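Expect chain and fold; see below:
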Amino acid sequence: MIELDAIDRRILAALQENGRMTNLALSRKVGLSAPPCLRRVRALVKAGVIRGFHARINPDVLGWHLTFFAIVELESQKGDALDAFEALVADWPEVRECHMIRGGGDFLLRLVARDTVHENELTQRLTRAPSVNRVQTLQTIRTSRNLPGVPIGV
């Protein structure tokens, strides 16, 4: 684990809130002049603390009206079967997250779909996938909290 001081944590909190912030605005927000602030950001990127900068897209505007989760149980928990499943869903653009889980299945997926027909097609693709034993889907009704990142603890 990397040692972060209070300024590093303020930088991370500010960028997590607004990754488009200019270096000048960031330096003012964290109480540092611009050149050392930029050096710190670059060091945080180099150390792997900051993995990238992303836009938060409104899925509805682009036609992705449904979000659902799928709990997937495989026939085998051998490494080859787990790796093969991960490789399979890695190529599906609708799979936005894939987590290997413990207790109640092998994987938890977060998927997006354009409509119910599309959701059903994705569920059938999962069900028919090699070595899949069982799929349970959970459709979201609404999302009241969806925060990016992690608590920084400034």
